[in-house]
Amino acid sequence: MLSTLLDSIFRSATRKEVTYASPSIDICEEQAVASILGERPAFCLPFQPMNAKTYVGWGQKSGRHARRMAKKRNAQMLLLEDGFLRSHDRNDPPLAIALDDLGIYYDAYAPSRLEKLIPTELTPDEERRIASILSRWRELRLSKYNAGAEYDGELPEDYVLVIDQVRNDASIHFGMADANTFQTMLAAARTENPGREIVVKMHPDIYTRSKSGHFDASELDRQKNIKVVAEGCLPSRLIENADKIYTVTSQIGFEALIWEKPVRCFGMPFYAGWGLTEDFLEAPQRRQTTTLAQLAMAALVFYPRYVDLRAGQACEIERAIDYLAELKQKA
Prior knowledge:
By secondary structure, the protein is α/β, with parallel strands linked by helices. It has 2 domains: about 80 residues; about 180 residues, Rossmann fold (3-Layer(aba) Sandwich), CATH 3.40.50. About 35% of the residues lie in helices and about 15% in strands. It comes from Cohaesibacter marisflavi.
């Protein structure tokens, strides 16, 4: 951190132009960011007189400062976020980082680069490539995070899966939803599936990071036809065996589409509004009917950049998948 601060002071004093600058020390010191961008961004506070071509922020956190700095200095803006195939363990360095020069993927109120990429017409080679990627995703039972085990408890023969999320997750507010939306979702799951079992997947951070969810697990446990899964398990088995997935804005909804499952959305995540999900909300007019191949190609290939953690350089998603496959095999 000290070297980052000293470099920042030097660059401000000399007014030397840099390609990238960021108000986030974490971004400046993240090796994966340096591997993807080709250099480490210089640390720059909003009041510092640094001359940068592009100001880099993380999502809507440091991103709002980067956006203001870029606008004030007539420069470009770039927002970063974790990719949808992020890592093995959640504390590992990221394998994938999304780059967005327009907005950020989880903000349904404004355009994002991902939203622009999704309708892209695919070539036959791209169609074959994404089909292979999705096949490997299912074969290896991949997810955003990939350490740990599948749920090994008993599951009903016939059930729908309801996904909880951490309170105050930015994707909820920016996905046109709020805390009440989760109760609306659970009520709809009951009404639309009379007599059918409902499996509610609690978010693991509720138990591992002392976060709050939107459901009371002990209260749900007392209700008829509801089974609570509180374990910090991988979601693949829960998705694979469900008849339908109910979600607000969770990435599990996207993963359910990869598993070719019906998905009912009560917020407006990046994968909703394209004719692939059953949506509770009206989609922004910017979104149009598309195919799963287009959505997945944009989300997994066009939008993020991947890092070969062993070589310390940028790579394609296929190499990232191979890396995760090795780690899963050793586990």
